[in-house]
Predict the 3D structure of the following.
Amino acid sequence: MRATVLVRPKQGILDPQGEAVERALEHLGFAVSGARVGKVVDLEVAGDDETAAREQVQKMCEQLLANPLIESYEIELHG
Amino acid sequence: MASPQPRIGVVTYPGSQDDRDALWALAALDAEAVPVWHEEHELPALDAVVLPGGFSYGDYLRCGAIARFSPATAAVCAFAERGGLVLGICNGFQVLCEAGLLPGALLRNESLRFVCRDVPLRVERADTPFTTRCEPGQTLVIPVKHGDGRYMPPPDLDPAQIVLRYRDNPNGSVDDIAGVCSESGNVLGLMPHPEHAVDPLLGSADGGLILASLVEAARERALASV
């Protein structure tokens, strides 16, 4: 089963990358605010049981993919 | 009786850069500096360990995130849990945070720029095994060189764990924190590089105060174990 993990800087954590991107977008003439930059991890999990896969990816996030002090994460599964 | 030379290990990960400087500086300060390869599951007999600066495992995912899983890091964690002295410099500090030996995390510099310059630091605590040669409130000039040095403490950080603060914050660290120790005080992490400041010819010898404190504390432990 394919999974996508979205890792974001936690709310309240200063994200200078997001701010730089926001300034660049404003420079291009876009009216934007609240830009934040995170990362995406795409992976393939063995098996096709959705509950088991979600549990696996959740563990991956807790143990490696995200640092809970500074990052939040969201898991998407694609059947 | 001559005092014994303490044995201080320096771990080399793939991508470590400052391991040799650390070995050199420790030897210059009269320690027996022992290289430790990252694949070693057990540490040799040591009185202290240094995790050096660099870019372990390419700093992939997050700085220090992959180095946390190396066999030598597990051995260093076990050593620290037994009360062993561990000093993490720059990338070593990042590894110690990722490994949970120190609180907090290190994020991209607020400026998004790599900073490489001498910075003045204030000694907040001179009673740790890493700062006994310093005076409280003393200013130390030690270089930093990092892109990811913005320290983010956990909400419940005990202020007593703050050992060094920047007098001129180079990276946006919360509360100007440059170095923190573990609750029990036997583990210290700092972003500045004391091993690059042990000879006045290179601009400052203030880093020598930190490393000499460590050598002295390690020597006391060596003596106690004889």
Summary: Chain B touches chain A at residues 61-62, 65, 98, 104-105, 107-112, 150, 152, 154, 172 (CB under 8 Å). Helices of chain B lie at 19-28, 71-81, 91-98, 207-225. The first helix of chain B runs from residue 19 to 28.
